[in-house]
Amino acid sequence: MSESSEPGSRSSSGIDPGDKRSYRMALVADGYVNPPPGGLDAIAVLAGAGWGAVQLPDDAYSHQVAGPLLEQVTEQTEEFHRHGYDVVLIGSRTGLGDALAAVGVPPPDRIDPVTAGELQAFLRNRPPPRANLLPD
Predict the structure, then answer these.
(1) Count of CB atoms within 10 A of residue 104's CB?
(2) Distance (Å, rounded) from C-alpha 22 to C-alpha 83?
(3) Which label site among 21, 38, 55, 70 has the fewest CB atoms less than 10 Å from its CB?
(4) Is residue 12 part of a domain?
(5) Is the dihedral of CA 11, 16, 17, 22 positive or negative?
(6) What are the E-state strand segments in 15-134?
């Protein structure tokens, strides 16, 4: 199968080389997904920059509720990491670092942005995802 940079075409690995956003994922603390009035809406910034997002469980959730959700996030993040996605953390989540370490995923680069411009600059200055550099 030949590789094309046309969006929608796929390499033999199944990755669309023209779809750069599919290799960038942010783990987002609840406070940036559901911001208070006047707070930073990280989802709007991520969408505008072509990034995907995974919402982290709120720190206010009990361990019984948050545990299974955090496990799912960890499984997804391990998959992203294995396939060379650029994964970042916006905000924080208790237990996330330990959960990622348990599956061999290093802690993602993290930001606690106050403004949309600060988050945009952080995202814009990221290196290319490894997925874009991996051979077929």
Answers:
(1) 9
(2) 11
(3) 38
(4) no
(5) negative
(6) 24-28, 52-55, 86-90, 109-111
What CA–CA distance (Å, rounded) separates 87 from 56? 13
In a domain, 112, yes or no: yes
Using DSSP, state whether 21 is helix, strand or coil.
helix
- Tell me whether residue 69 is in a domain: yes
pLDDT by residue for the chain (136 residues), tens only, comes to: 334 444 444 444 455 555 544 699 999 999 999 999 999 999 999 999 999 999 999 999 999 999 999 999 999 999 999 999 999 999 999 999 999 999 999 999 999 999 999 999 999 999 989 886 655 5
pTM, 2 dp: 0.82
Instruction: Give the residue among 136, 130, 104 at the shortest CA–CA distance from 15.
Output: 136
Query: Which residue range is the domain that position 46 belongs to?
Result: 20-125
63-88 pLDDT per residue, tens = 999 999 999 999 999 999 999 999 99
Can you read off the two tokens belonging to residue 84? 């060379």
